[in-house]
Please model this.
Amino acid sequence: MDEDIFDKKKQHRERHAGRKAEKKKGKNEHQQDLTAQQRNPKAFAINSVKKAQRQFHRAQDLKTKKQHIPLVDRTPVEPPPIVVAIVGPPKVGKSTLLRCLIKNFTRQNLSEINGPVTIVCGKKRRVTFIECNNDINSMIDIAKVADLCLLLVDASFGFEMEVFEFLNICQVHGFPRIMGVLTHLDYFKDNKQLKKRKKLLKHRFWTEVYQGAKLFYLSGMVHGEYQRTEVKNLGRFISVMKFRPLQWRTTHPYVFVDRLEDITPPQDLHLDQKCDRTVCFYGFVRGVNFKNHCGVHIPGCGDLRVRDMAFLPDPCPLPEKLKKRSLVDKEKLIYAPMSGVGGIVYDKDAVYIDLGGSHSHKDQKLDKGEDENEMVTSMGDLQAGVDEKIAQSQVQIFTDSAPITSVDAESFKLPSVNVVVDSTGRQRRKAVFSTADEQVMIDEEEEDDSEDLDEEDLDETEAEDSKNTASMVNKSQTVQNESLIFDESEEEDERRSIKKAVRKSDKKISPTKKLRSKLADVLDENESEVEENFDSDAEYDLRDVSDRDDDGSEEEPMRKKAKVVSRRTVQTGNDELRKKLKEVIESVESKLGNQVKKKNRKVSANGLEDLENSVGEYDSDIMTGKLDKEDDESDEEEELSADEEKASDEEEEASDEEEEESGLQWKTNIAQKAAEAFYERQAVGANLRKLIYGSTEQTRNETQGEEEEEIGGLFKIASRATLKANLVTMDEFDCTKWSNAPIQDFTAESVLESVRDCFVTGNWKESENAEELLRMDDDSDFDMEGDFEDLETGEIHKVSDKDQKAISDQEDSDPINKKTSTGPVDEEAERQKLIEKKMKLKERFDAEYDETEGGGQKSFYEELKQEVDAQANMNKSEFEGLDDEIRVQYEGFRPGMYVRIEISHVPCELVSNFDPTYPLIVGALLPGEENIGYVQVRLKKHRWHKRILKTRDPLTVSMGWRRFQTLPLYSIQDHNMRNRSLKYTPEHLHCMATFWGPITPQGTGMLAIQSMNSSEPGFRISATGSVVDQDKSTQIMKKLKLVGTPFKIYRKTAFIEGMFSSSLEVAKFEGASIKTVSGIRGQIKKAVRKPEGSFRATFEDKIVLSDIVFVRTWFRVDVPRFYTAVTSLLLPASEKNKWQGVKTVGQLKRERSVRAEVNTDHLYLPVLREEKVFAPLVVPRSLQRQLPYDYKPKAEVAAPLPGSKRDIEGKRVAVVLEPKERKVLGLMKILKTRYTERQDKLHKEAVQRIKEHRKKVEASEEQKLKRQRELKQKVSRVLSKMEAKKERDFGKIRKKKR
Amino acid sequence: MSSSNIYQGSESFRVRLVLSILSGRPIRIVKIRTQDDNPGLHEYEAGFIRLLDKITNGTKVEVNETGTAIYFQPGLLVGGPIEHDCSCQRGIGYYLESVMQLAPFCKKPLKIVLRGVTNDQVDTSVDALKCVFFPILRRFVVDDEGLDMKINRRGAPPLGGGEVFFSCPVRKQLRPFQFLDPGLIKRIRGTAYAVQVSPAMANRMVESAKGLLLKVIPDVFITTDHRKGVGKKGSPGYGIVLIAETTKGAFLVAESSSNPINSGKPPSVPEDIGLEAANRLLQEIYRGGCVDSNCQSSTLLFMALYQKDVSKIMTGPLSPYTIKFLRTLRDFFGTQFKVETKQRSHEEEDLRTGCDKVILTCIGVGYTNLSKTVA
Model:
């Protein structure tokens, strides 16, 4: 140890100053720790305010450009499979790709793919694949539901029209994600060419979708499949693809049907093969919540209403627990019911094992001899069993009446009895009818809970009735016995109505439950008597009921009579029973009295009467009629209150006689108690829902009104509900004000106390109480125990242990504190509590101030976003914990649920001509969208469509879920907002189109096609647009000029006829401005009597009789009311893409080679103008005389002077030659011509010659000159030489001289 | 076309027609007062149908000879400037309530003048609607420009002679609505009106109402509104409307008015009326909630007519009218409200805040104003 210590080397100490330190410093390069802005702030200062502002502005612009209006995120927790559609023209490899993708995801090879295939492709992703065929109807439907479209393009061929058509369809219907896939790339042998092609196609694709849209290349086939890696990549892209919500689909729920089942009863089918079917559609709910019983549209079929909906277990669920990163093979589920894979199919009430898939032995079946299966198949073919055939037999009672079938008689059957023992030990016999009747029964039981007594005696009459029914066959029965034709079940119904009557008339028999059980015993003894008494009674009332159908007016007296009779019978015939009843009632009464006291309800029985009055019909309504008591029975609380109610009912009656005896003490405070009791009852919250809605089916029945069943075309069964309603609430006073609400007397101090804390002057909630909050604040300061952070200096002050101790000492010394802090645990808990409170406060503070940037105010956008987020969270969390059954009632079927939609009245062709390759969609309609009206759309003819569209020509429109044909009227809006009708769509301009069609939300995309036929060349989409407005009337105007002529003119006033046909018309146009053709303006003043329809008008100037006067008016054009849904799905397979609705007039004419008859007046003819021949101008002599000389007409030209040239020439005589002379002359002429010709030639030659000669002379002259010049030169040279010599010599001499 | 609903009797007559218009589903009502001494539709109901016809375009109404059955095929709401003389059998409130329910969904902003009885004993008075329903309507339509209501003249039964102007902007869709905490009542306001009677009546009513209300809160202020008669048109009457306003902007109202002249009832005493109104207001406060019991149904209707989102509200006990309304609403739109009694939290346990409250939750039906024109 010691050694270790000593062994330890001295540690290195770094130098901080001195030479070494400096040296080291020099080694490290200096690092700049300040930013440029910090170092040189001036450089970053704002130089130009304007520039800075512009910069800021731009930054803000860019920022806000990125912002979108926040939408509430309605995607469910477990979303439905995404729909991936494989689209493209024929023979591009769609099916191959689909097969490859399925194989890629599931490792299964599907031999035959029909309809949608759902696959679990990842931990959180399911995909439904669907192949879209080349029908434009299919393309439209697919574009409406697909989340992702794989657009296949044959690269060897290039883009085809279908591709562009589909892209356009997508654009109109919200533009789902689109991914291009190029196939047939192995066609190109040359790599360079391939590259070029790829690039070309890519860029074209980008212009259509968006720049940088994903385009896949499938380079070639291996063994008839695409290359595995490429498919895998494609698959990966599909499984990570993100989608943005589309407007239409986030507001409309829909189901992409992957299976359908015809559940029409076979007997109906047997009767009529083409009867309307009841069909079940299966699929995942997509979009938003799907409400039960809502209206739906099936594109290609029509508008329907959902009869029922149920959710089923998911056939293709996501893996529940994930252990690994990827899916286990077991979890790679596939569900393709129409392709025959997927094994088990779950229905509402059954599970089917599908054996018709890939494992089935179809071929073997075919191999077997047909005769072997004959019997089985014939059995399968049987449409109706023996029992059904019996069922079809008919009995006719009267010649005029409709025959009674056993279907009718079905309801004659005795209901089987289902005994249920409830919690109180009472036996309730539930009559189980065939479904329809069952409901009625339930209703009755609810209503007549308190009347079981009556029921029970009445039940005894059944035996009697059955006897009667036996006699039914006898046609000799008189009308009196008509009631007997009813079977027991109905009889019973009738009797119940009677019972009510009985109860009304004789209320003393209204029992409580205990009383009831006792009575039952009594009644057992009295069976026979009761039987007799009520028999007659029953008969009577039956007649009453049948009468009721005949006439409403007779109803009332009859019923009264019935009451009287029933009362009489009860009174007279039932003496014995009555005695016993009284005994029982008395005993029960005493018991009840005790019970009431026990419950501390001081209100006596009589008091309750007043209570009843104050609470009004409200209570009676709720307590007797609407409450679903059957369900409530299990609920003890409810039972009790109900019991009380009944007790009160009974007591009320019983005490009528006793009222005088009892004192009046109970009357004090009655209203108060009644009110309290009322609110108490409402407060039993669990039943609030039932109180409002009842059991779901019951009220549904009510709302459906009285669908009175008819039996044998003779008698109607008046449903119980309606009778009851008649009596109580049907005509209740319609007033929002709660007029008969229970009222307490608030003048009493005690009552007033009950609302004391509703006011700001009362006690506040602890969390809101200012005093409390302040105190808490102080506490929390203490709680800090002296620790605090000085925000200005950033120092943290901590209390030293000593101080802390002091504080705690102080606390200890405080007696109150001491008391509270009994133990360390308590102290700890309290502290924890305080800390929690503090945290909460801090959170709140943070939320308010810190979160926003720079502590500033939150922007509007942020706030909006937050609001939307909160709403989305609320949507998710609100119904989270609830059971699916109930949840579905509140919010409808969530997207992602697998549902079964039952729809009745489906055209049989949908089922019989069903083809799984055509997509089948059930799209829900929102309220109001089921209606029809005038829809106005802003529309533009497609650039690629060859011809402009003519107004009122049929057009097939796809809008919302629907595809339909209609006759649009085109119009354009003038500057004064007038819609002027157009004959044709403008060439490159938007216009309005108005048509009679389904009402669709504004802003919905719309697509128009002239003909569905794919064989037609060219671009099929003729126009696109979006909905602007809808109305029930239109205001499209057409210009109209009315023409009239004046028949009398006074200065500026003229009377004009022929413009209108009656003075009424004129009156409508008074004050309208008119105009003549020459442009004189005027005004219509007033109609005149004589020629009907003529009027007085004033003009700005005098017009003439020959003027034409016209008025410019506008005439409303009607839009044809034509709308028909495209029913392409109802057509047989071969004709599915050839749906043809209304044809255009042109088409019809062409087909029938009808030519329009030409109005000859409309033809253009050559204008013939005759030359005008004017009469010679004659100037009268007198006038002539007055004219100056110049203007006087000169009579003749003067005769030429004799001997003058004019005279001679004028006198020359024409010479006529003899033939010989002429010949001579001709010859002479020829000779002369030849001579001149010759002369000419000679002259030309001479000229030429002279020219040449001149040239020659010139040349020789030139030569001569040249020679002379040279000679001259020579001479002068010699001369100059001589001169020079002379000069030299002379010079020498002079030198010498010197 | 959509299938029609069939109903019986005259109960919830307005609601059925209003919902029919909003949902676009035709209805048939049969057996209207067949058992009554005065069978068939009453004058005020016929007037109501006429009013609806004015607000809508393309409505078809068929009434049978006796008036005991009608078939109503709704058109589209158009709105615009409208004038209507209401039947004096019922107050203007009877008509105005329904008009207010329809107003935000018209094509053009509604500007309606209604003439008739402004205050009576039966219907919610126009004052009450203005004070209570307006704040709620304001929460649903995003900004309240163009939302206005004026009482031009007052009219008491039986002759009426009052006039009310109401205008409402048009919305494509409403705002979601969550209102769970009504807060505490901070003040009480009110109007005491007297038509063709001595102004002293109004003051006497105020006195007696204040006497009770001042016990609970000091901030009580009641204005008096005395109107002279307009010629021979009107009839005398007086009454008082009291409004309680909470810290969170919830309003509760109660009213009381004199017996109409020639009704066979003895003339009312102003003090009694004042006291009755105050008592009713306290009763309303006892019931509590974020909306008044008169407006429950309208509020719930607007909640249901939203996008497919959750709306939530707390109310006092549901009035019978509301319950019926909820049933009818389900028939037309398939909307069911989740109804639960509000559980008192720990800190609220010993507060004296009247009776138990109800929380209503629903998911909207995805309703949009189909008649509004987009640009």
